[in-house]
Amino acid sequence: MQTFAYQRPATVAAAVKAATAAETKLLAGGQSLLPAMKLDLSAPAALVDLGGIAELRGISVGGGKLTIGAMTTHAEVAASADVAKAIPALAALAASVGDRQVRNRGTIGGSLANNDPAADYPAAVLGLSATIQTNLRAIAADDFFKGLYETALKEGEIITSVSFPLAERAGWQKFRQPASRFAIVGVFASKGPAGVRVAVTGAGPCVFRVKALEDKLAAHWSALSCEGVRVDPAGLNSDLHGAADYRAALIPVLAARAVAGS
Q1: What is the pLDDT of residue 152?
Q2: Among the residues of the chain, which ranges form H helices?
Q3: Could you tell me which residues are beta bridge partners of residue 148?
Q4: Angle subtended by helix axes 244-260 and 211-219, to nearest 10
Q5: Which pLDDT does position 1 carry in this prediction?
Q6: Per CATH, which fold does 54-165 belong to?
Q7: For residues 109 and 28, is the Cβ–Cβ distance under 8 A?
Q8: Domain locations in the chain as residue ranges
Q9: CATH superfamily of 169-260
């Protein structure tokens, strides 16, 4: 790991200003960035630590939505009585992220900004039609995830919070890789203000929706509706953990389990 400058601002405005310096990266939970730096896969000249910004933390419910501050940790989401009451599937998802260390350091904003293809939170954000609020604008989930480790965020733009509409029904299922606990395939299904949505993580280079499952579940919200739905394996991930056709076959199975548990 190379040497680097370090700043810990107290406000979003100060963080935005500090982040304009060349070769500077924002540090949220650090569960992806710091390992990359240790392996010399990333070598920023400076880090701007968002951990000291109080306004980026917290959980609230009101106006038909659940709002979570970007620097709220996975463990805080998992343990929140407000989350468990408002969207139980989201609390379950947070509890399934990584291990205890990752859950106590990793943050929802950091996870979304990184957009790992096997991360859990993108499935919930897309599956619930959430809105990502930044220091500049509000970004709909359908517009946020662009590709492998790619999002709609602009240079210097910081996620401040995420707002989830309260769903009538929602469920989450993950077939995880036992060592990393990342999703080989993860499915988040919901029925709410944005209609029926089924979002998949782990199976492709970026989180995506499955219209065939959404159409079936919109007609009848039941695990049985997922039976017989075929997902095209073209473009899906294929690695030592599972071939593309294996992942494709898992998607409707996990969707059925998510619906059954909603």
Answers
A1: 98
A2: 12-18, 33-38, 74-79, 81-86, 88-95, 100-105, 108-114, 121-127, 141-144, 211-219, 244-260
A3: none
A4: 30
A5: 66
A6: 3.30.465
A7: yes
A8: 5-52, 54-165, 169-260
A9: CO dehydrogenase flavoprotein, C-terminal domain (3.30.390.50)
Q: Which CATH number fits domain 5-52: 3.30.43.10, 2.40.240.10, 3.30.450.80, 3.40.50.11600?
A: 3.30.43.10
Q: Is the dihedral of CA 153, 159, 165, 166 positive or negative?
A: positive
pLDDT mean by block of 10 residues, the chain; 262 residues: 87 91 86 85 88 95 97 97 98 93 92 95 98 97 97 94 97 92 94 97 97 98 96 95 96 98 93
Give the residues across from 190 on adjacent strands: 170, 197
Q: In what order do the strands lie in the sheet with 169-176?
A: 169-176, 183-192, 195-201, 208-209
Q: Select from 107, 77, 110, 80 the least CA-distant residue to 93.
A: 77
Helix (H) or strand (E) holding 196: strand 195-201
Q: Model pTM greater than 0.85?
A: yes
